[in-house]
Amino acid sequence: MTGKPALTLYLAGPRGFCAGVVRAIEIVEMALEKWGAPIYVRHEIVHNRHVVDGLRAKGAIFVEDLDDCPADRPVVFSAHGVPKSVPAEAERRNLVYVDATCPLVSKVHIEAESHFRNGRQIVMIGHSGHPETVGTMGQLPVGEVILVETVEDVARIGPRDPERLAYITQTTLSVDDTADIVAALTARFPGIIGPHRKDICYATTNRQEAVKAMAPLIQALLVVGAPNSSNSRRLVEVGRAAGCRYAMLVQSAGDIDWRAIEGVSAVGLTAGASAPEALVDQVIDAFRKRYEVTIEPIVTAEEHVNFKVPRILRADA
Q: pTM for the complete prediction?
């Protein structure tokens, strides 16, 4: 006997890195290998401090504006996507650039442009100021994309022509919350056109479903992820909505509030799509120092998605 209290740690599967995040990190690493340091990256390549600090140590310099990029060094655009004005400005300055936009975000961009060509104004379900939302809205002229964040927003918008509308969504939203907003849109605008396939990405959906599956079994939920990571924050919200009396976002094991979970015997653990597995391992180790831990996987899906890096970085280019 160790004298430590017993605790079951339910480990969500899938969790952590998605294919778009893996690709984005690979793009920065391959750019460093191809061109040497420094490489400039516009915005955090993915929303995780651990990942960003690791790439910074290898020679990546993170900036928020192309004006901060010198003309003689390559620049990478983050996985969240950028407005069309950004690559246009890079071309005007003759910058070498690599676009690390997640292909599933690019799919939404293509949808928006298609609707625009067909004369439809677009309603985007997303979070104001999030780089993915800014990038998607920036694919089209000002006024062609109307942003809604809540069901209440749907009642307030005034589209140019209620009969000529389409909707798209940010890829990292809560599946359930988005469904409510879509229902409100279709109720107010019966002719509105949605995407052929859901915009919310497979990784976001899968991670939320795993949390819902473990929620009845646990007394507390920890989500490893960054405060500015939309999909990580949604996992916390999904856990609370599913009945977890305590659900908290932690960037690392050092953020765990042990007093808040004192006396619990079952904890759920997951990670946002931009959180590396090393951080999950650190959390597990921290629990093992305090508890006699039994790990129980909760696997609701298997993921086998891979995205190619841009041709400019491939050996066959």
A: 0.94
